[in-house]
Amino acid sequence: MTCPDPGGQRTLILGAGYAGRLIAEELRRQPRADLLPVGFLDDAPALQGQQVAGLPVLGPIRGHIALAADQAQAQRLILAMPSASGEEVRGIFEEAQASGRLVQIMPSLSELLLDRPKVPQLRDVNLADLLRRPPARLAHEDIGAYLTGQTVLVTGAGGSIGSELARQVAHYAPGHLILFGRGENSIFSIQQELIERFPEVRQSAIIGDVRHAKHLQRVFERCQPQVVLHAAAHKHVPLMEDSPSEAIYNNVIGTRILSSLCLEFGVRRFVNISSDKAVNPTSVMGASKRLAEMIISVAAQSANPDQAFMSVRFGNVLGSRGSVVPTFIRQIEAGGPVTITDERMTRYFMTIPEASRLVLQAGALADNGKVYVLKMGQPVRIVDLAQDLIRLSGQDIKILVTGMRRGEKLYEELLTAHESVDQTPHEDIFIARLEVPDAEWLAAELAALEAYAREEDYAHVRQQLRKMIPESQVAAE
């Protein structure tokens, strides 16, 4: 038997279950110069004083990390509890970090189920670990039934959500995966990644804009997509407040053009990615996403029996380019301060893979014309998020409150006061009860909105948004 390098850092493994044993056995088979496992900590009473994978269980985890690490002269800690909740991970991480040791973690159960690594992958603890929820239960057969062997078009495929949708679609072996988006560098990047990871999947990368009807029509004529996942959108609230016409062009007109082509070409499944900012919108961006939902609901009324058009509404996603997290990370790397707009502000959060998986699951439900609402868990205070990131960095960074910007909300809602939900067969997905607008009324009002946008008449764009969405609170110019 090959022995670990005695010069490696003495390491305690937190969790003596399957994951912890896997790490210990792998390090025994393939020793690493930097890791020398010396024992486990585990809360199970039956394991105390026992040997697991040739290593002693030195005691329980909670309340004993620093003492056990001192006694074992351990310099490093590995958290090997992939099914632990975010609250459990947070408590253990804070205690482990307070002991002064380097802390690493095994990926969550949902990550392991998705990528199925043969060898346990260790990494630093990140924000998603502290907000971890139980992995969503997916009906893989139902998802595969509408994706496997099909031609799937993903718009906005270079973005955070679009690229993750493309990755997860690739797992279901589509017949042809089309990556459509405006940013050539981001589209090229996801294409190269998918070529390496899924060489058996036929794919095409197309640079284009959902606002350009002629080009989009050529794509449909040439590729004949059967499933469309629509993730192309402008999402930055403050930027769209300054350029409201751009939000209308991309989020509203682009969605109208795309949905019309999906009807014309008999697309069997159309899934529009929406946002909790569409609920009682206070911003141009949020109002534009609500109009996109209305467009899809009206288009669904003209769909054939074998077609299903739907929207999926959810909150913020951790790590997306439009979220607050990358901004906080940049501020921390620069030495601070970390800026928040209001200490009372809360948001719903999901990880990008979690949101994308539930989008695909909602697509499998195929209830034509519906707006699905994802179960987002409990809202998170933005100031707590900032403090978590600062703690993860190990630095002492100040937090600066700057005041709310135009169009921002203190808290997000997934439903309006007049909406309620129906349960679907999936515990994490609901259907919002919404009135479908009259098709002729919507077409006329959209034409007026588009005319104002093309004239760059911001005052009338905002006025028209308030007219079309009475519950909105979009500010006047």
Automatic annotation (TrEMBL):
It comes from the Bacteria. Residues 152-432 form the Polysaccharide biosynthesis protein CapD-like domain. Pfam families: CoA_binding_3, Polysacc_synt_2. Belongs to the polysaccharide synthase family. This is Polysaccharide biosynthesis protein.
